[in-house]
Amino acid sequence: MEIYNHTYYITKAVKLAKQGIESGKGGPFGAIIVKNGAIIGEGCNMVTSQNDPTAHAEIVAIRNACKALNSFQLSGCTIYASCEPCPMCLGAIYWARPAQLIYACTKEDAKAIGFDDQFIYEELKLPMGKRSIKTLQKGRDIALEVFKLWEQKEDKTEY
Amino acid sequence: MEIYNHTYYITKAVKLAKQGIESGKGGPFGAIIVKNGAIIGEGCNMVTSQNDPTAHAEIVAIRNACKALNSFQLSGCTIYASCEPCPMCLGAIYWARPAQLIYACTKEDAKAIGFDDQFIYEELKLPMGKRSIKTLQKGRDIALEVFKLWEQKEDKTEY
Questions:
Q1: Which residues of B are catalytic?
Q2: In this structure, what are the phi and psi dihedrals at residue B78, rounded to the nearest 5 degrees?
Q3: Selection from A105, A117, A2, A94 nearest residue B132 by Cα
Q4: Which of B14, B91, B133 sits opposite A139 (nearest CB)?
């Protein structure tokens, strides 16, 4: 049961974005994660202050929320993000499996202030040989042997 | 200048994948990052042991390599991954901006042992309203105000 409405929580996420700029942590993005009305994780962009290109607000919030839940899944949670997630963050959201995603600005809004997520969306659609980062395949035979070990492992934790 | 060839480094990445399974850290994936012939970061999947759905081998390796370089960019680096990166990891790779990506197994190989990255690729292509995670837009007006603050900020670090 959510005590407040979406506007209440998205306003919190936007406030984190603002605080992130003011404190020099990184870009203008914030995110919070809510379960049963309680905020269980939050984050703002910390790419430049932490020297971590993966420290987008959503990733930071997901990691914090999972720590709080002691789980690698965000079942029943809602993610509030001050901007439409980039492909990296959307991928993380799919792996975390929350119930819902609410975002404020669009990727077009982000592009207008210099964050070109759209470029990555376009790259993902291209075949390997046409991508801007040179990409090659090597060593599939030896890597497949390790995949077989995983298949055969009896006490594994699936995710 | 790379002292060894791609086979040498991809074998190292695959070895990390194997060690990750054996030590119970997570799924069968490993990655290393090389600059001027030196391994500057490595990682294996640690999703289940760390309760972190973002702890894929590539993300772990990128964070470690960036820490080593004291930079949020992997300019001139090569990422070796024991499997074709998922959309989350590919997104992270684009943000980190390495020179090159070498991978071993394909996403089809991963699907065959239970890791369905393809599902996320398909979801990313869908409009918001058709995605399996319920997605809504709220509060764009207040979030745009924070984007304006970013535009106006004079001492910002762009990334």
A1: 58
A2: -115, 130
A3: A94
A4: B14
Q: Which residues of A touch B6 (CB under 8 A)?
A: 136, 138-139
CB B107 within 8 A of CB B117: yes
Distance CA A136, CA B100 (A): 8
Residues A27-37 as b/e (b if ≥16 CB within 10 A, e otherwise) read bbbbbbbbbee
Question: How far is residue B52's CA from residue B83's CA, in Å, rounded to a whole number?
Answer: 19
pLDDT score of A71 more than 80: yes
pLDDT tens digit string along B10-27? 999 999 999 999 999 999
Contact A139 B47 (CB under 8 A): no
Q: Would you state the torsion angle of the CA atoms of residues A44, A50, A56, A60, taken in this order, to the nearest 10 degrees? A: -70
Cα–Cα distance measured from residue A61 to residue A32, given in angstroms and rounded to the nearest whole number: 6
What are the structure tokens assigned to A87, written together? Answer: 């492909």
CA distances from B38 to A28, B60, B113 (A): 35, 17, 32
Pairing of strands B30-35, A78-83: unpaired
Indicate if ipTM > 0.90: yes
